[in-house]
Amino acid sequence: QVQLVESGGGLVQPGGSLRLSCAASGSIASMYAVGWYRQAPGKQREFIAAIITGGITNYADSVKGRFTISRDNARNTVYLQMNSMKPEDTAVYSCYARRTPLADASWGQGAQVTVSS
């Protein structure tokens, strides 16, 4: 399985922006899907965004229009640009990669994002 490492988390004020990066130990070009989930304290893990083979992107309604997922196959890195952030975006954000639709996903260790004034 590919190893994934997130970076770019931190503290941001409401209305601010942050970009998360997810660096993979191997090629992501052949991955069926790469994406992001988040988990807030006391809540279930929530799907945020994904890029599927062919460049199709999916977003959760809660972040649509504010967050943008992208991938750089040359750098084996997936990004999550987060704009107009809200306190309810506070969570641990984890990236994942899945080689085929039915394959087990590889997960990163997570990055803490806190939105607070």
Oligomerization status of the protein chains = single chain
Shape: globular
Mean pLDDT rating: 96
Characterize the main sheet: 7 strands, mixed
Listing every helix as H and every strand as E from the N terminus to the C terminus, the arrangement reads EEEEEEEEEEE
Task: Give the uncertain stretches in residue-range form.
Answer: none
What structural category do the secondary elements indicate?
mainly beta
Distance between the termini: 39 Å
**Helix content percent band:** under 10%
Number of helices: 0
Characteristic key phrases:
4-stranded antiparallel beta sheet; mainly beta; 117 residues; single chain; 7-stranded mixed beta sheet
Summarize the structure.
This protein has 117 residues and is mainly beta. Helix content is 0%, strand content 50%.
Describe this structure as you would to a colleague.
This protein is mainly β. 0% of the residues lie in helices and 50% in strands. It is built from no helices and eleven strands. The strands form two sheets. Strands 2, 4, 5, 6, 9, 10 and 11 form a seven-stranded mixed beta sheet that branches. Strands 1-3-8-7 form a four-stranded antiparallel beta sheet, with no helix packed on it. Strand 5 and strand 6 (56-59) form a beta hairpin. The model has no long low-confidence stretch (mean pLDDT 96).
Sequence-ordered SSE layout with sheet pairings:
Blueprint: E1 4-7, E2 10-12, E3 18-24, E4 33-39, E5 46-52, E6 56-59, E7 67-72, E8 77-82, E9 91-98, E10 106-107, E11 111-115
Parallel strand pairs: 2-11
Antiparallel strand pairs: 1-3, 3-8, 4-5, 4-9, 5-6, 7-8, 9-10, 9-11
